[in-house]
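Something for you to look into today, if you have time. What I am after is a single protein written out in full by you. I want to see for myself how the chain folds. Could you add the entry underneath, on a fresh line?
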Amino acid sequence: MDSEIDVDNSPAYRVYKSGRIERLSGETFKPPSLTPENGVVSKDTVYSPEHNLSVRIFLPEKASATNEKLPLLVYFHGGGFVIETAFSPTYHTFLTTAVTAADCLGVSVDYRRAPEFPIPVPYEDSWDALKWVLSHASGAGPERWINEHADFGKLFLAGDSAGGNICHHHATRAKREGIDSLISGVVLIHPYFWGKTPVDEFETRDETKRRGIEARWRVASPNSEDGVDDPLFNVVGSETVDLSGLGCGRVLVVVAGDDTFARQGLGYAAKLEKSGWEGEVEVMEIKDEGHVHHLKSPDTDNASKVVNKVAEFIKKSVVTAASDFGPQGEPMIKCVKIYQKRDNSLLQPSNIAELSRNALPHGCTLT
């Protein structure tokens, strides 16, 4: 029985009827390095001693000798919840390149994987990692690099495939738990969303492909009563999923033209725009490319385009200027006169002298 294959998802993995899994890719460990790679140093730090789970932190080497604050990118790796880790060459290379391009601090999250640890374990582990990262917001967390270099006013969540799915659910959970104001933006790269009913006429009707996706979701989430219509997976087609509560101000969705999941990504962006969510959504479509192909081929033009787009998204100004206040906290006339609303539109106060840090118009933040 141990030789009988239940799910064959080669060249990624095979699951046997005995329950044994054979991972065929994504298992190589790339060590961190304090010797700069592409201008970036890296190290691993445990965030969950209970489960022996770590994050890999990426820091631009030029910032390592200073207390410079940088945008913070928290990244969740893909792999269908089954393969890949935060320490595989694919993600080490991608994060190193992205951190260089965006001039940010990167935290790549490792989580336990199915089928040994089926859904919801990957969500809970990665949420614990995000809370661990946020524990540094006061500057007194356990990891020095995050304390010294993370600008928590510029926190971004990102992930590809299953990691993109995780990002969406964490942004929604952040809203429910009242910490959405801490998340500036979310990047979903080829997000792993699906459902039994195609989202539009262009989504594949190939029954072999659809059965394959259903089988792979069963590996990741064997206890889902609704199968691929589980709201964790069927984010776009499910009427029970309300995107208006997404806990961030900006979203970037990256899709690939030849990816089976591309129509789901486009459908997600369209649903988000119609949901009443007060934010800005951008879509980047890569022509003639399959699912996360650019991650596996980091030297291609498409890989550079994705990295540059993510860097542009992180760097995008939300109007920066001085925010000088007097000794008693009173606003000074020379201080910035522009405020940023949650929908990224701008508000010009009629009388700046009447406003203070703690008396901003409802739904606005000083930028």
Notes: Helices lie at 89-102, 121-134, 144-149, 162-176, 207-220, 262-274, 293-296, 301-315. Confidence is low (pLDDT under 50) at residues 318-367.
